[in-house]
Design a protein that fits this description.
The protein is an alpha+beta fold and 597 residues long. 28% of the residues lie in helices and 27% in strands. The chain has 16 helices and 31 strands. The longest helix is centred in the C-terminal third of the chain and has 50 residues. It starts with 8 loop residues before the first helix and ends with a strand.
Amino acid sequence: MPDDLYYHKHLMYNIGIAKSRGDIVVICDSDAMFTKSFVRTVIETFERTPEIALHFDEVRNSRQDFYPFNYPPFELLTGDGAINWRDGKTTGLWDTEDPLHSRNYGACLCAKRADLIAIGGADEHMDYLGHVCGPYELTFRLVNKGRKEVWHESEFLYHTWHPGSDGDFNYIGPTDGRHMSSTALEALETGRVMPLTENPVIRHERENGVPPVNGQFINPACLKAWTQEEVAKSPRFKLFKCGQGGTKLVRELATYNILSYDDKFYGVPHSLGPVDLARKEDREKPQVIEGASADEIEALLAERSSPAPVATLPVRQPSRPQGVQAPPVLVGMAGPFNVVFYDDAYFGVPISLGPVDLADPAQRALPEILKASTWNDVDSMIRAQRLSRLEVESRAREQMLEQLRAELAAKDAMIADFLDTITAMRGESRSWNEVRDRLRREVFSLQFRLNGAELFDAFTPTDIAERRADGIHVTADKPAGHFLHGPRLSLDKGKYTLDIWGARQRASAAGLPVLNVELVTNGTTTVGTFNTEHFAETPTLVSLVFQLNDAPTDARHEFEIRLAHHGHVDLVVSRIRLRLTSGTGAASPADLRRQHA
């Protein structure tokens, strides 16, 4: 691996997963301490509950006299200097309101190796380069696959302070503002199982059941995209620096941050915006709480029924030379918004927008961005917007329920007609129940064939593809591979038609493969390939007909669709639809056909 490539922990995870031969894989911090009972605890937990994603939280101690590492006993690590230990376990395990941010999701994950291979291993999307990454991305997709997330209540990892332990001067990808990857959170919210970028060695073992003989772990396209020069230029990455003047974030609470500075601890409300504890006037602000330890600060905050009002108090910002504008500063979160202080105002920036430069007047004027003079005002605007959206969604749900009730009434009338027919057929050889079930399936099949299911918006592009107004684009110069991942569906047996509208450009020759359609169900992958002659330069419809027979374990098929390109042409996919063709019949090469839309 070239020295100028920026580090990607997920690539290292995949190398470890691929090279491992045990049933259970443990991905953990390299600078942590473990008790003698740790390995036995892992094995016994999986023997009791095998279908889990097992996490261990990490006890963190800020005492600097343990460095250089001098093998302190575990009893000392939960005493003086422990920043997240209370009443026999970590404060994260006590937290039931926001465990995503109070527990150390990146410290240790244990999972069955077969499960990790089945979900495509760790995601090697570029967003996970650098410091903001970790095994929790695997956890979220394992949960989407049906595994249960479990946190052990009595076994822990232990960590002592050392220089650089907070990731100072590292590049970080997109986050939710609190060092949790927003790309990983997207997988948790959408239910996506497969990675956006799958390692080729992991993919080979997943599809073939055995690892490749001489697998190449690093995609050649990454040799340029992962260089430190390219990462530094990317708008999706920023350089993370710890607080200036010895300031360090110790804990994040709902409305306060607990910071340490010059051997003292301070509780700073989010509503104050940027605060420089190196400045005496900032440390002495009436809203700032001072104490001898983080626990003392938290106890003082707990005694208050609510935080002191700060919106009406004058806010003094750090001085700067006249005529020089300070850069935007992220000061906290409110629901799905980042709250940013800039130009003596507070801005609510939706996390869904991705990177936004508030120094650009055009970006500040985006209608999705909220602006107010105080934190409380921005928070009120966000709450009002969310309430309005909930009211609109509630009305839409009521309309949908009315429509469903009407459809159910029509369906009940249809079933009543069929029941009359069934009564007349009782003399036939098949039982009354069989006839009723057959007619119900025919009703469903007719509805599915007439309407179909539009799936395009449910597909997620990988990092080699781009979503534009006219569809998903993937160009010939991108490496061959998956560029669209579909949703996970649950389908009954039957014969289905998958319709794809696409257009191609820059075809170098006839007969070249252009598009692979992969249908994955119950561990089996079916591939349909379309060539240059199947597509034109205008939107063209291609269809793949396939058969789902009886599922091996239940009456329905867990089903996924993936699209891959071969790198021979520029390809645009603009629409994807799934239809039920009939309840019987098998797919064959004759079922591949082409026509202009």
